[in-house]
Amino acid sequence: MYKQVFVSVVLLLSLSLVQSAEDKDEVARDVGGDMADMDIMGALSDCNETFRIDMAYLLALNESGSFPDETDRTPKCYVRCVLEMVDVASADGQYDPDRTEAALMGIRGVRALSNVKETASKCADRSETCKCERSYQYIKCLMEAEIKMSEKS
Asked: What InterPro entries is this protein classified in (predicted)?
């Protein structure tokens, strides 16, 4: 029971703006994606089993776009794990802007970024060799772009 509650809280904190099911379906149709094949909750739960992440890290990521301790590899590997499990990232570290758009628009409710796909394509151009670092920098790039755009509006 505690584990399920923890995972639910992690989901809500890491995704911050949860929309109704109708909104998610509408957004998924708008971006041409199908959210039904993205098991975000399962990915968060499974990845938390392997890469335990402190909720403070997720809060910091949502609020500032980065982790409080960027030398800690575990949260970065958690991000990689989640991205790979929902097929936003491939095992070889390539990112799918279409799936990124569907995931961010449908789950996080990102509205500040009007050009998620374009931003995701730019953020996907990564030079890091470590898959965990690469995934973290990808998410960080997207989060910082979202925060920057929301501050402008």
From this structure: PBP/GOBP, PBP_GOBP_sf
Contact 25, 35 (CB under 8 A): yes
Domain hosting 14: range is: 2-152
Taking alpha carbons only, the member of 14, 15, 34, 10 closest to residue 24 is: 34
Q: Diameter of the chain by CA atoms?
A: 41
Q: Are 97 and 124 contacting, i.e. CB atoms less than 8 angstroms apart?
A: yes
For residue 40, give the CATH number of its domain. 1.10.238.20
Domains identified in the chain, total number = 1
